[in-house]
Amino acid sequence: MSWDERQRAMLAEMGYRLPAVSAAAEAVEVAEAEPEPIEVAAPPPPVMRVAAAPSVQPSNFSGLDLAALREAVAGCRACGLCEQRRNAVFGAGALQQAQWLVVTDPPDEADDASGEAMSADAGRLLDRMLSAAGQRRGGDDATAFVTPIVKCRPPRGRPPQPAELVACEAVLARQAELLRPRLVLAMGLQAARRLTGLAEPLGKLRGRVHSWRDVPVVVTYHPAYLLRSPADKAGAWDDLCLARMTSKA
What we know:
Layout: H1 5-13, H2 23-32, H3 66-74, E1 92-93, E2 100-104, H4 109-114, H5 121-132, E3 144-148, H6 162-179, E4 183-187, H7 189-196, H8 202-205, E5 209-212, E6 215-220, H9 223-228, H10 233-248
Parallel strand pairs: 2-3, 2-4, 4-6
Antiparallel strand pairs: 1-3, 5-6
């Protein structure tokens, strides 16, 4: 088989090493090649005009208290993530004013199954991290509220799409209004980028204080990442110290 110069260049770009072919052999192949049949394009099918599907608008969560907001999220259909979820993950922790609002990356499979935020090994590490910083999300005297940046697990764990983030930010904004946190702790790249509005790597977002809705934001690693990369726990401790100092300022 022969290739023209353009085809050879494309194959080379893909890393395919072409066998050496003499000019004479290539000339014979070209001479013996049958002419390609002429294809006649079929007429295009008739165009059927279908009305565009209406865009889904975020629900109005203003005016709801925390219990009503939780119920609204359980039945929320403001974006396509509701089609495949098992449970919406509203979050848990302080039931009135929270010192820290901890916003994590989207729910994982365990969270989706249980309906609880950070319910597996990552959740146990999170509780230890909060305790070390003087915070807790459990009990009657809870001081932190933990919730994901979107309340339903995206398919196959993909990052949430912009429309999904917009729909869920209405919930997060209402949670912040009700809990009045002194600090937001963003755990994980997706939560950090959404809350800071910056598309930088997590390492560049850490170590400084950002702002979301006039609330200071500190960025750190997601506990699930720290379970895979324990060497970064020292950096996470630095982030918690920054968060603790910022929330007391």
